[in-house]
User: Fold CCR4-NOT transcription complex subunit 11 from Hymenolepis diminuta.
Amino acid sequence: MDQMIAYEVVKFITNKRHEADTFEKISEKFHQLEQKFESRPLGDYLSILLEESIVRDVCQKSLSVFLLWDVYKAENLHLNPYLGCIYSKLTESASDFPLPNQFKVFMQRLMLHPERATDLLRMTLLQILNADMDDKSNETIDFSGVESALLKQRQCMPKSSVQSLSNVIPDPEKSSQSLSTEQYVQAMVENSEVLLSLRKPLHPELIRLQPPPMPTPQIGTAENSLEVPTEEFVWLNPPTLSHEFHWDSTMGSSQSAPKLEIQQLASLSLTVSLTVAQREELIRAIKDDCKSVSFSPENFSSLVSENPTIATEYLISIQSEDELDLFLAALLEMDLNVGLLEVINQTSSRIKLPNKFVLNCIPHVLTKCQSIEDKNAQMRIARLVCLFTMSWLRNKTLNINKSSIFAEIESFCLAFCKVKEANLLYRQVKNLESGTPVDKDS
Assistant:
């Protein structure tokens, strides 16, 4: 597989047609080749060809450097793993085959000014290499920004991964014959170990230092603290081990970890309405241990909409007042619907709600009802709101001694005067204002 990929990469960069193609088209073709070998990074083979000086043609070398940038152009520059290879080829001066200054200017603009990439990628390689260069353009070649990105990259890497040596040593005797890139690759891939070694350079081995010896009795009694102890600490591996098992006393009790079925039912109750059997099982688990079911104020609105009965049982089972306040506050952030009114009404009939929540709930409900656009739904909710408010007044859950709440309720009743329940609520509020006893059956 490695030999095949190497051949494909060399075949791509040695294709003379790419010299007249735009960089945008070259990028598109190379990404198609990447999809063919999706499990292998083609950039590794391009970097090998550059670092081992196998690619010597100016066009091929320029194309290889561009492709190493292109494969990670969507990421920040310092996240490109081939940035070191790109920088070394753009800044090398002692090479036998240096990159032309025209291409260096092109790569400088491409890497440091990504907003101009669209226009730059519409140019061809031949246009870049044949462009006229004046003295001013030569002076503007500055890769300090690329060097800064490279330093930032190396700061995030372990020092052992930055330092490496090639496993393959080049032959110091140069052949009199000039080999082409294809011939170099042919010689390289005939021995698969060479290609594999080039992909995995030699890194420094991580060596763990031996820990210092533990204090010994001789050190504690020695007259001179600088004296070398006569006895070294020896690591002892006991031949026999005796384990004593400590059983979990909460296993099988209500305090044990919740069953997987209960967790699945709790998650399901946030999306769909449960069946009667499922609802009873989840309510039983909530009554046994409220903490075994994980609901939060953020997802509580979904539970109220889909399974209001379960939401009521969960509120009743909460022991902490601070936690209860969080869930009650989540109710006031919901859109007004039948399920919300049912949960608030059922909860108030079984536990005493905080007075702060009660005083905030009524104005919230009245305001939300008046903002409903659907007239039929608004009339239905208005009837329920009136019955809900009358129930709180009869049970003295709502003790309105402030004229502001009286005024809000009266204004609401007048707005929905065509609703029978609104007239009954208006009469009940007036009786409370005048001190007339309220009929329990009204």
Observations:
- Residues 354-437 form one domain.
- The radius of gyration is 39 Å.
- The chain has a mean pLDDT of 79.
